[in-house]
């Protein structure tokens, strides 16, 4: 049986258990694809993170309770993904994370670092890494940085994340 593919759009997240073969997919440039997986329950989630944090700390689009827009900011994306995964039977202590994206897409972006407001890709990557560390979630694989976008495919049966780049082939995280 072929796996059912679900596309995860910008600022969205999707959580599923593997009662049927499921593959979550997205394309990221400066955004981050956060893939969280509980290998025992085979519950997984993918969040397409656009920005490091919601500095206003409010729900400006009214979407924190649902999937659409629930992953716009790294801080909210992680909390929302964790909450939805636990509801489906995952345990936070068993989770592993894989991340991809965080590219420097535009020529006007700076050299990176927390103080460079134009380096969205590197700021996104650093933000989610810090948040995962604070939650005690191990990062089992990553493909971040550089200057190109990536296709990300997350298989919930195996937990495998495959990152594809235009001229570089595939990388398994």
From TrEMBL:
Top enzyme category: hydrolase
GO MF term set: protein-glutamine glutaminase activity
Alphabetically ordered keywords of this record: Chemotaxis, Hydrolase, Receptor
Recorded catalytic activity of this chain's protein: L-glutaminyl-[protein] + H2O = L-glutamyl-[protein] + NH4(+)
Pfam families hit by this protein: CheD (PF03975)
Keyword Hydrolase attached: yes
Gene3D superfamilies linked: 3.30.1330.200
Residues that span the membrane, as ranges: none
Gene Ontology biological process terms from the UniProt entry: chemotaxis
InterPro entries associated with the record: CheD-like_sf, Chemorcpt_Glu_NH3ase_CheD, Cytotoxic_necrot_fac-like_cat
Keyword Transport: no
EC assignment: 3.5.1.44
Functional summary from the UniProt entry: Probably deamidates glutamine residues to glutamate on methyl-accepting chemotaxis receptors (MCPs), playing an important role in chemotaxis.
Family that this chain belongs to: Belongs to the CheD family.
Protein name, per record: Probable chemoreceptor glutamine deamidase CheD
Organism, as annotated: Nitrososphaera viennensis EN76
Gene name tied to this protein: cheD
